[in-house]
Amino acid sequence: MLPRGYTALLAGLVVALLSSSAAGAQTITGVLSSRGSDEPIDLGYIAMLTEDGDGVASTITDVNGRFRVTSPEPGSFLLQGSALGYRESVAGVFDIGAGGSMQIEFRLEPEAVTLQGLVVQAERVTEEPTLVSVGFYERVQRGFGRFITPGDIETSTAITTSELFFGIPGVQIAPTTTGDQVVMTGTRGLCPPTIYVDGVPTVGSVIESIMPRMSVYAIEVYRRGAEIPIEFSAV
Q1: pLDDT in tens, 11-56
Q2: Residue 68 CA: distances (Å) to CA of 29, 55, 71, 210
Q3: Are 225 and 146 members of one domain?
Q4: For 114-161, what is each residue's pLDDT tens digit?
Q5: Where among 55, 73, 108 does a domain terminate?
Q6: Which of 83-87, 177-181, 231-235 has the lowest mean pLDDT?
Q7: Would the pTM count as exceeding 0.85?
Q8: Whole-angstrom Cα distance, residue 127 to residue 150?
């Protein structure tokens, strides 16, 4: 057991050392805010650095933007501030002598936050169920005949049914006294083709009498009998 006087001496030394350390601390306190609005920045990051960029101390601002950083040694210091939605900035140099302190207002410039791009994928149903049931898409894959698909009709600027045929190789529209008639070029000149609308054979080739433009899903045009699919020939 230590003598009473020795214990008191040790206690005095500890208090003296703590007081000396506290008195010698170099402290910067302040408020981190947004430039222009002076709104305090919560959860901002403040770092105390030497002039060489070495870290001395760091802290996070409170809800009022307040912060406090302390160096155990006197010197010249920089403050680095950053926060989500703001441009990182460095302030200083601040010369603080032994036991010195200062208070500053540190403002950051707002900056738009760039988020990683989001890729949205959407799968569009391109096959009309009615046309699937009548085998239209299978015949398109075979490649015999001329086809006007739902996609063609959707993107077309055609107002009438006959205008849907414009631009199809070998297909022409011939005006008649009864209306526009579909014809195709062949070795023997122009001839009426076989036309199917939504998988159903048509009677005649006067287009507007077949079906109105807004009621058409798809059209198939076959120049000669040899091109007509076997499923139609069997009907």
Answers
A1: 444 444 444 444 457 899 999 999 888 899 999 999 988 888 888 8
A2: 4, 15, 10, 84
A3: yes
A4: 666 666 665 555 677 888 888 888 888 888 888 888 888 888 888 877
A5: 108
A6: 231-235
A7: no
A8: 8
Cα separations in angstroms, 125 against 99, 128, 157, 214, 229: 74, 8, 22, 20, 26
Residue 205 is predicted with a pLDDT of 56
- Same domain as 155, residue 91: no
Is the model more confident about 232 or about 70?
Answer: 70
Q: In terms of C-beta density within 10 A (0-12 exposed, 13-18 middle, 19 or more buried), how is residue 50 classed? A: middle
Give residue 39's domain range: 27-108
